[in-house]
Amino acid sequence: MCGRYVSTRRPQDLVDLFDVMRWDPGQALDPSWNVAPTDTVWSVLERVERDTGEITRQLRPLRWGLVPSWAKSLNVGAKMINARVETVAEKPAYRRAFAKRRCLLPADGFYEWQPVAATKTTKARKQPYFISPEDGQVMALAGLYEFWRDPAVAEDDDPAAWWTTCTIITTEAVDAAGHVHPRMPLAIAPADWSAWLDPAHQDSGELRALLATPAAGHLDARAVSSAVNSVRNNGPHLLDDAGAGR
């Protein structure tokens, strides 16, 4: 699974990198070295404008943890932070979003934990690793998004009535990531961003063919400070080499 990641790029940098056509400069998210489920995260997606019918690429903040439109509570999102690539096109919670509502979730890298057995002098624990592209480029994680109507809010035009949530698609881990954890997030290569984001592109076989291993497998996995274990901790010190933050 992918349960934590790092996202520190400025909105303007993401706008330039992903050729975003529309975003609200008044919407700001702090850089995060410990993005956790239910956090608000940056996403890149494409929507059809109601007035013109034009498809525009947008930078939007979404809540991490997908809530299907038919869910009774927002709380289900905390359990739906990942969608398995093996079943994403068929599973009821994800299949409509996979067909029509796909997004990219920019990340510097992601965390996974490797079990460490107990010794005579130490307890069993899990060692966190930061996994990122060797070249330091942004990872465009493959995501889905969905709209959920809060029944507790009376008016449809009340901004609080609607939540937009997302999930990250995962697969079996390979290379450096596979030495740490059996699952890893998928990514979309820059040449395929437009095809992935296009809401009119609904051929499931072609869409699945766009899903790729991040950085084409050229990933670096580095043991980092156990301070990342707590969602309350944040900051660049979380990427310190293991031992520095224990």
UniProtKB/TrEMBL annotation:
InterPro entries for this protein: SRAP, SRAP-like
Highest taxon, organism lineage: Bacteria
GO annotation (BP), single: proteolysis
Enzyme class: hydrolase
Pfam families the UniProt entry points to: SRAP
Alphabetized Gene3D superfamilies for the sequence: SOS response associated peptidase-like
Keyword check for Hydrolase: yes
GO MF, one example: peptidase activity
Enzyme Commission no: 3.4.-.-
Keywords: Covalent protein-DNA linkage, DNA damage, DNA-binding, Hydrolase, Lyase, Protease
Family indicated by similarity: Belongs to the SOS response-associated peptidase family.
Protein name: Abasic site processing protein
Upper lineage: Bacteria, Bacillati, Actinomycetota, Actinomycetes, Kitasatosporales
